[in-house]
Every structure is written in structure tokens, then in C-alpha cells.
Write a structure and sequence with these properties.
Belongs to the glycosyl hydrolase 1 family. Keywords: Glycosidase, Hydrolase. GO terms for molecular function: beta-glucosidase activity. This is 6-phospho-beta-glucosidase. This protein is an alpha/beta fold and 468 residues long. 36% of the residues lie in helices and 14% in strands. The protein has an eight-stranded parallel beta barrel, surrounded by five helices. A two-stranded antiparallel ribbon has the order 2-3. The longest helix is centred in the middle third of the chain and has 25 residues. It is globular. It starts with 7 loop residues before the first strand and ends in a 10-residue tail after the last helix.
């Protein structure tokens, strides 16, 4: 009993949140590169040109591009079995629509992937993680079917170039974020539902074509969906609350439904009909979706929600996380995110029961304000958070029989927050000396959680206790 011998322990990052070097060696601008942040309110803004008097967190981030050898060495020291990272599309195709890739961009990821393999770390690559090339804006980004072809060329380039070195892939990060943050998900600036649903449809087609191509290029490839883990409890046993909660979950779950089943669920088709939204379907699309179903389900898990008959929109509020209800039975982080370890077991069962595919937790962590005292960071709160979540994951395996492939905690090293642009919202086992304005030495410092996670991996999840 317990975690399988081949369980993939590790951590997860995104290129735009750690790499920096935003125009180095031929890289083009991405949608993430246009997002600003500044203290004290850290209001995000999207601009069409880089403005010299504004701070763009992704431009330098934590300078992983120049320090990846040091960072991978620290991951190896913790004993990582797997490292989930993303490849920046605009490093490979700077404008997104070129016919030939940028050789220097591929060379960077060659070095990164080879270093992982030298340290027995399995790469798990996210093909598109919240950073679309700005060059695609002239087409209307994912609202235009042409972008499907550009994405497929990009994905096939990766499959061919890294064949035999990368076996695990995710087509899109948190694909359902198209409904909540369309600029992040697909470079879509519009809030119009028809535009978002058109963009989502094109991403489904692109993902399905990529899955088919990835399997044809290398039979060993395993390609998954990545769901932004929105899981909700009904506010009460009132039948109207039950239906309100179901309605909310449908808005989120139709994304993995399409990718795992290969067709649009009836509930979504009826909703689109009521909204007078017509999808841009071409004659062969039904076969494309059916032939391109994913091999496994991955998801992020940070919190659960409460919904009911009076749910306000999909998700509103500071970080897009409010539904109009609160759960009085759980605590909240300093950023207002509900802390619900038991919900992870529920989520794992929910997804496996729904799709009958292997599942993987590819993001989970606590964003907190760490304090350096005498060169050390005592983050027992993070250890406690992760310990409780890993315990519930083990119950899903031991007690429920859920086939969980692995666990990659979010932000094994401090990085730029995607929701706020902050550095002070820290997730890592490794502290990085950078503040919310980008100032600092970028020095890496191991937190207490570094030694704890090393112990967890070394014992394959058997020893979760913290020993100073």
C-alpha cells in the first residue's frame, strides 16, 4: 500500500514566471510579457506596447534562463523524479507563425532537458502555459482558425526535436481558464462569451490534433489535459442549491469533458443554443476531437468553492475566485484562498470516476509571505499545508483505488505569481531574493520545507513528519 514505486514526485513551474530573458536569443514578445504589476496594489494591466516607465515581472522574473543549472541541481538534491515546466512558444516561434523554429530557443531547452535526464528527472512539458506569441494578435489569436495550424506546427516541432527525451506532455495549461481569464489562456482581450467559446473550440481542435500527432511521432508519448481545479460543494441540500452547484461545475468541467471524451457534452450544447452561440465547426472536426482524446488527466488544486442557487457569475473577485458563498468549515490563506486538504481526495475521486483515466496532481501549494531570519526561512505553515494534502492524496490511492501518477508541487522555487504579479506570494521550497518591484540579488536560499520535501521523496511519501 502507499504510493507506487514509480510515483512521479517533483515540482512545477511556467516559463513566463521563472525564465526572464524575455527577448534574449531571438525570443519574441508573448502575451505574458505585456502584463504589468506594481506595488502597493499590484493592479494588472495589459498593454499593446512595452512602456519604459512600467514594471513587467516576466521580463526578468527569477532569471532561471541563466541560472537553470543551479536550480536543477537544487531540484536534484531534493530527489525530484519529475519536473513539470513549460516551453515558451515565442522562444521557438518568436511571432508564432514562422515556418522554421528559432534554433537558439530549441538549444536552451536541449540543455535544460538533458540536465534533467542526467539527474534522473523525468521532464513533463506543458506546450502552452499562459503565454501566446504577441505576433498572433494580428490574426485575433485563438479566435482565428489559422492559429490552430500555427500551434500544431509548434507542437510537432517539439515532439520531433525532443523525441526519446520527453515522454509526458500537456497541451494547454488550465484550459478552462479561457472562461475566467481569457487573456492568460489564449491572448483573448474580449469578455464576450461567443468570442471565448470560439477560442476554446479552436484550442480543443488544436489539442486533439497535437495528441494525434504526438502519438504518431512517438508511441511512448503520454499526452494529458490540464484542468484548473475548480471543485465546488453545494451551499445546502436545497435542490435549487444542488442544481446551482451543478450548473457552476458544468461551466468548468465541459473543458476536460471534451478533451477526455472527444465530443461536446449535451449540457454545453444546450447552453450554447440558449446563448445563441454558434461554434465554428468544420466538416471533419467531430472526427478530429474523437481521435485526439488525451491519455491522462492532470489538474491544479489549491482550493474548493461553494455554489448554489445564487452563485454570482462563474468566478468573480480580486483573483477571480469569488462565487458569492463562503465555506465556514475551512480556513483561508493570506490571499483569501480556501485551504481544504480533504477536498483533494474528493477531487481525485471526482475526476477518476468521471473519466476513468489516470490522474496527476501537477499543481498544489501555499502562497505565503516568507520571512528571512538570520539567513533562514522557517516555513512550517507550508510544510503543514503540503503534509495534509499529500496525506489526503494517499487516502485516494490506498482507500479509493485512484490511479494517481504523480505530484508536482507548484512553485518548488519562488516565482512570479500569475494572478497578481507579485513575488511576495511565495510558494517555493527555495527562496529567491527578489521583491515585488524586481529588486534583489536573486540569491537562492533553502527553506525548511526543502529538507522536509527531500525526506518525503526519499521515503516515497511514507514519512511526512517534520524533523528539525
Amino acid at each position: 500500500m502507499g504510493f507506487p514505486d514509480n510515483f512521479l514526485w517533483g515540482g512545477a513551474t511556467a516559463a513566463n514566471q521563472i525564465e526572464g530573458a524575455y527577448l534574449e536569443e531571438g525570443k519574441g514578445l508573448s502575451t505574458a510579457d505585456m502584463m504589468t504589476a506594481g506595488s502597493p496594489t499590484l493592479k494588472r494591466a495589459i498593454t499593446s506596447v512595452i512602456e519604459s516607465d512600467r514594471y513587467y515581472p516576466t521580463h526578468e522574473a527569477i532569471d532561471h534562463y541563466h541560472r537553470f543549472e543551479e536550480d536543477i541541481a537544487l531540484f536534484a538534491e531534493m530527489g525530484f523524479k519529475c519536473y513539470r515546466f513549460s516551453i515558451a512558444w515565442s522562444r521557438i516561434f518568436p511571432q508564432g507563425d514562422e515556418t522554421e523554429p528559432n534554433a537558439k530557443g530549441l538549444a536552451f531547452y536541449d540543455r535544460l532537458i538533458d540536465l534533467c535526464l542526467e539527474n534522473d528527472i523525468e521532464p513533463l512539458v506543458t506546450i502552452s502555459h499562459f503565454e501566446n506569441p504577441m505576433g498572433l494578435q494580428k490574426y485575433g489569436s485563438w479566435e482565428n482558425r489559422k492559429v490552430v495550424d500555427f500551434y500544431l506546427r509548434y507542437a510537432e516541432t517539439l515532439f520531433e526535436h525532443f523525441k526519446g527525451r520527453v515522454r509526458y506532455w500537456l497541451t494547454f495549461n488550465e484550459i478552462n481558464v479561457m472562461s475566467t481569464m481569457p487573456w492568460n489562456a489564449g491572448g483573448i482581450a474580449s469578455s464576450d462569451e461567443a468570442v471565448k467559446m470560439t477560442a476554446a473550440y479552436h484550442q480543443f481542435i488544436a489539442s486533439a490534433l497535437a495528441v494525434k500527432a504526438g502519438h504518431e511521432i512517438d508511441l511512448d508519448n503520454k499526452i494529458g489535459t490540464m484542468y484548473a481545479g475548480h471543485f465546488s460543494y453545494p451551499n445546502s441540500c436545497d435542490p435549487d442549491d444542488i442544481q446551482g452547484n451543478e450548473d457552476f461545475m458544468h461551466k468548468m468541467l465541459f473543458y476536460p469533458d471534451v478533451q477526455c471524451r472527444g465530443y461536446y457534452p449535451n449540457y454545453k450544447l444546450k447552453e450554447l443554443e440558449r446563448q445563441h452561440i454558434t461554434l465554428p465547426v468544420l466538416p471533419a472536426d467531430a472526427e478530429i476531437l474523437k481521435a485526439g482524446v488525451v491519455d491522462f488527466v492532470s489538474f491544479s488544486y489549491y482550493m474548493t468553492h461553494v455554489c448554489g442557487k445564487n452563485t454570482t457569475g462563474i468566478l468573480r473577485g480580486l483573483n477571480g475566485l469569488e462565487t458569492g458563498y463562503k465555506n465556514p468549515h475551512i480556513e483561508r490563506s493570506a490571499w483569501g484562498w480556501g485551504i481544504d486538504p480533504k477536498g483533494l481526495r474528493y477531487a481525485l475521486n471526482y475526476l477518476y470516476d468521471r473519466y476513468q483515466l489516470p490522474v496527476m496532481v501537477v499543481e498544489n501549494g501555499l502562497g505565503a509571505a516568507d520571512t528571512v531570519v538570520d539567513g533562514k526561512i522557517h516555513d512550517d505553515y507550508r510544510i503543514d499545508y503540503l503534509r495534509q494534502h499529500i496525506s489526503e492524496m494517499r487516502k485516494a490511492i490506498d482507500l479509493d483505488g485512484v490511479p494517481v501518477m504523480g505530484y508536482t508541487s507548484w512553485g518548488p522555487i519562488d516565482l512570479i505569481s500569475a494572478s497578481t504579479g507579485e513575488m511576495s506570494k511565495r510558494y517555493g521550497f527555495i527562496y529567491v531574493d527578489v521583491d515585488d518591484e524586481g529588486n534583489g540579488t536573486k540569491q537562492r536560499i533553502k527553506k525548511d520545507s526543502f529538507a522536509w520535501y527531500k525526506q518525503v521523496i526519499a521515503t516515497n511519501g511514507e514519512d511526512l513528519d517534520w524533523k528539525e
